[in-house]
UniProtKB/TrEMBL annotation:
GO terms for molecular function: hydrolase activity. This is HAD family hydrolase. SUPFAM superfamilies: HAD-like (SSF56784). The keyword Ribosomal protein does not apply. PANTHER family: BLL8046 PROTEIN (PTHR43434:SF16), PHOSPHOGLYCOLATE PHOSPHATASE (PTHR43434). Keywords: Hydrolase. It holds the Pfam family Hydrolase. It comes from the Bacteria. The keyword Hydrolase applies.
Amino acid sequence: MLDRPPTPEETAAVRTAHREAYAALRPTVRPTHGARELVDGLRGRGVPAVVVTGSGPDATRDVLAEVGAAPLPVVHTGGAVPPKPDPTSLRAGLDALGASAEGAWAVGDSVWDMRAASALGLTAVAVRSGGIGDDALRAAGAEAVVDDAAAVLELVADACDEPARVGA
């Protein structure tokens, strides 16, 4: 960890190393269990969704295509949109949907995701795919911690039975 902000050259070197490492691992990357079903389930229920990610455009495009979510709007962090835990990226996602924070959910797998969601008053749902423990996710604001995207769909289905709880 640096005790100072990284230089532009250091930032560029880290981004290049990340791109190269991802390119080598890409053939082994698989969506979390139930990801395609979650996307289809949201569409089928008319629940709007947006992807807010720090991943690069190429990686995001590949994964979204694999789960059939390619038409979803995407907000990339970096540059003018600060990364999570700053809530600006989630606010931009809501704006892309023309939605308010009231009744909206954020689904993520990191402490940063949960902190950003909590800062906006979103219902924060954590998926155990980021290698972070339940206690840390809950301490960061997760209202639910689930095993995979299939479990998120179950929460959405339950919430759709109670319309006041859903409405991104």
